[in-house]
Specification:
Mean pLDDT: 80
Oligomer: single chain
Low-confidence stretches: 25-36, 58-135, 442-455
Organism: Sander lucioperca
Shape: globular
Family: Belongs to the inositol 1,4,5-trisphosphate 5-phosphatase type II family.
GO molecular function: inositol-1,4,5-trisphosphate 5-phosphatase activity; phosphatidylinositol-4,5-bisphosphate 5-phosphatase activity
Number of strands: 27
Protein name: phosphoinositide 5-phosphatase
Strand order of the largest sheet: 11-12-13-16-17
Radius of gyration: 30 Å
GO cellular component, one term: phagocytic vesicle membrane
Strand content: 15-25%
């Protein structure tokens, strides 16, 4: 890996264009082309290199001229990688080379092997070949046997991971990070540095764009341990949550399969002011995942924090090189390192009692009141994770620029918000501490032991497994026993997860590979409201696997089910490679919901939707002005939440949303349950689930074109279908009432326009940033006081 400019030399540049050609000269009968590419880690690079190797390795039409591609450097440079897709901008470093015939053959073979190793760092070329998508059952069988015999070719070796977490409260770097990042005597092998609240501006929140990313990255790079050279492997950010991953230069070649993902858990489960970013990678023979998260705030919101954790674990998924393989979840790794502002507080003690225990340094007693400790003990979150002993004072909340506890009007109770946990074997923590020298928050570094591959033992084990498989193949037909073949899902509701387990037992004489396959003339193996997890897999002889059949109705599938055009009914085809097919029946009943129903149809309903039959929808009574469900939510908020702090910005609880949905759909109870935040989020989800938005798709382009003209905007709204126009004006009037109380609820025109414009004025296709700004400008005209 090229770490600094000193590691790279430029000898010649030849542009590759349509006119470029290699012509055999009179004196040179062989040319050796050495391509030096700047590529990022990850699956994109591996796919690119495999294609280059396939296209360029081997003899050319000239007979004596051959090509080999050998990647030398892997740098995280997006610009350089994009250039590779344009031949006119790509360059080759060419050296003339006149080998003997036998040396040419040796170079061809060795270069191919180097390419495979560089892209995956697997010590065996055969193992990499078998990992390609076209190898199915055999590949999985070998992997299974290698896993069972792992102790024969692996041994633990010490590597240190420095893990740091720092909530910077939207500040720019004002001091050196050296006391934090270089606090260890010896330089760590890897750094994983997490930040939260990197930028608190509205621009960062709504457009995920901030100059502070570069400022803090620079501050980190300047403060790494001076006794080692480090390479930046990956940086990933979601709004103000950022994770930076560095590795020592000498370890870089053993890093592979690097991927990064993000998930937002803010309002509507999408906004990125809360959530997580993560990086996964393979180091030697260990798969490692590092997660940096920022969970819900406020002392009483521990259930919301638990919910955030569970959503991160279920929704954060890493794609695999083989696109047919299911994505990897966080828990599918050997080692998981979890850092961040988890926001769990100290409960049942007031400020004075907490400060008294801190003054006595009685952290053990104080820790017994810690919400995270209690939630872990109850197995509500972080099951299987470990946290080191806390022997430092709480890291939240101080006055900025000092070591004084919060002296603001709110006078927050001190708490250990910033935490580090881990899960996996052979991990030893060397220290766990806060750094009072940094005035905004703190960090906690951790060191761990991971496994490292012994190449010679790996090769021997691998070859023995292959020999045994060769003897066994084609001798027997695989077969499985199914726990049952009919599944019934009763009373399926909108956005409510339903799951049942299908167990497969391999009762055959050989291992088998299964996969759910498409039926004729169908694009996928199942209906969009159904998933099988995993959809494909491998079962060793005598082994079993549990498959979760999951039914989940969302905004894309609800409209057809609400209208009766679609039913909860499907047939799954389970295929065994070299074996037979099994048919599995999935049936159920869906309870209609106002979520996913059109404005027009809801205006026809004077009773709760679950009390109405399909025939009732055809009645000719005068329709309601607006859907009664919309009125119930807005009226509730108007009466209870005009002064609610952070309304429409803080998420509610999923359990409360379910109660609100049931109340709207059944009319029971008479008034809406749940907190104001849950009702507000339920309203946003209602608007998001409309099959046709409040401003119909046919008006979308026209709205963009006249967005800067207030009178033209009002004219467009006047042309909407009557029920859509009523809803638009009703919502705008309510939001103007909210803005009259902005001193209490902390809302402004920009925030409301950003949240509601994307729901009321949705694009029929993917919306770009310019369109998003235009929809906000359009809607802002209706939020101005005095608008009709």
């Amino acid at each position: 890996m090229a770490i600094t400019a000193d590691d790279v030399s430029l000898e010649d540049i030849i542009p590759i264009s349509l006119d470029f050609a290699v012509v055999e000269g009179e004196l040179l009968s062989y040319f050796y082309f050495q391509t030096e590419l700047r590529l990022p880690f990850g699956s994109h690079t591996r796919l690119f290199l495999s294609e280059v190797n396939r296209a360029w390795s081997g003899r050319s039409a000239l007979g004596d001229v051959w090509f080999a591609c050998k990647p030398r450097y892997f740098l995280t440079s997006k610009v350089a990688f994009k250039r590779l897709s344009s031949p006119a901008q790509c360059s080759l470093h060419i050296k003339p080379y006149i080998p003997e015939n036998i040396r040419a053959k040796q170079h061809r073979q060795s270069d191919r092997h180097d390419l495979v190793r560089s892209s995956s760092h697997t010590p065996s070329n055969k193992a990499q070949i078998l990992a390609m998508p076209q190898f199915g059952l055999r590949d999985n069988l070998i992997r299974c046997e290698l896993l069972k015999n792992e102790d024969l070719y692996t041994y633990p070796e010490d590597f240190s991971f420095f893990l740091g977490t720092y909530n910077v409260n939207g500040q720019t770097p004002k001091e050196s990070l050296h006391p934090w990042l270089s606090c260890t005597l010896n330089p760590p092998d890897m750094y994983c540095i997490g930040f939260q609240e990197l930028d608190l501006s509205k621009e960062a929140f709504f457009f995920n764009d901030t100059p502070k990313e570069l400022e803090w990255t620079k501050a980190v790079s300047e403060a790494l341990h001076p006794d080692a050279k480090y390479a930046l492997v990956k940086l990933v950010r979601l709004v103000g949550i950022m994770l930076i991953f560095y590795v020592k230069k000498e370890h870089a070649e053993f890093i592979s399969d690097v991927e990064a993902e993000t998930v937002g858990t803010g309002i509507m489960g999408r906004m990125g002011n809360k959530g997580a970013v993560a990086v996964r990678f393979r180091f030697h023979n260990s798969d490692i995942c590092v997660v940096n998260s920022h969970l819900a705030a406020h002392i009483e919101e521990y259930e919301r924090r638990n919910q955030d954790y569970k959503e991160i674990c279920s929704r954060l998924q890493f794609r695999q090189l083989d696109p047919s393989q299911p994505p990897l979840t966080i828990m599918k790794h050997d080692v998981i390192l979890w850092i961040g502002d988890l926001n769990y507080r100290i409960s049942e003690l007031d400020v004075s009692n907490v400060k008294e225990l801190i003054g006595k340094k009685d952290f053990e007693t104080l820790y017994s009141y810690d919400q995270l400790k209690r939630q872990i003990n109850e197995e509500a979150v972080f099951v299987g994770f470990v946290e080191g002993d806390i022997a430092f004072q709480p890291t939240y909340k101080y006055d900025t620029g000092s070591d004084k506890w919060d002296t603001s009007e709110k006078c927050r109770v001190p708490a250990w918000c910033d935490r580090i946990l881990w899960r996996g074997k052979n991990i030893v923590q060397q220290h766990y501490q806060s750094h009072m020298a940094l005035k905004t928050s703190d960090h906690k570094p951790v060191s761990s032991l991971i496994k490292r591959v012994n190449p010679e033992a790996y090769k021997k084990t691998f070859e023995e497994i292959v020999r045994n498989i060769d003897k066994m193949e084609n001798e027997c037909i695989p077969s499985v026993t199914l726990s049952k073949r009919e599944f019934h899902f009763k009373d399926v509701k909108y956005m409510q997860h339903h799951a049942q387990t299908l167990s497969l037992f391999n009762d055959g004489q050989v291992p088998c590979q299964f996969e759910f396959i498409q039926k004729p003339n169908e694009p996928t193996y199942c209906k969009p409201w159904l998933t099988a997890n995993p959809p494909k897999g491998f079962i060793a002889q005598g082994g079993s696997v549990d498959i979760e059949l999951e039914v989940f109705v969302n905004r894309s599938t609800a409209p057809e089910l609400n209208s009766g055009k679609e039913q909860i009914e499907d047939i799954l085809v389970l295929h065994l490679e070299r074996g037979k097919d099994y048919f599995i029946s999935v049936i159920g009943n869906y309870l209609p919901s106002c979520y996913g129903s059109s404005i027009h149809s809801l205006c026809q309903l004077r009773e709760p939707i679950q009390d109405m039959s399909q025939e009732t929808l055809l009645n000719t009574e005068k329709p309601l002005d607006i859907p009664k469900e919309l009125w119930m939510m807005v009226d509730h908020l108007f009466r209870n939440a005009l002064k609610q702090e952070d309304i429409f910005q803080q998420p509610g609880l999923r359990s409360e949303f379910a109660e609100i949905r049931d109340c709207l759909d059944t009319g029971i109870p008479d008034s809406l349950p749940g907190s104001n935040h849950s009702v507000a989020e339920a309203l946003l989800l209602f608007l998001d689930a409309l099959p046709e938005p409040v401003v119909p798709y046919s008006f979308y382009q026209q709205c963009l074109e006249i967005c800067s003209n207030a009178s033209q905007c009002e004219k467009v709204i006047s042309m909407l279908p009557q029920c859509h126009k009523n809803v638009f004006n009703y919502l705008a009037a309510f939001l103007r009432e909210l803005l009259k109380n902005s001193a209490s609820n902390r809302l402004d025109v920009n925030i409301l326009a950003t949240i509601f414009a994307s729901l009321l004025l949705r694009s029929p296709t993917k919306q770009d940033l310019a369109e998003k700004r235009k929809t906000q400008e359009f809607f802002q005209h209706f939020l101005a006081q005095g608008s009709s």
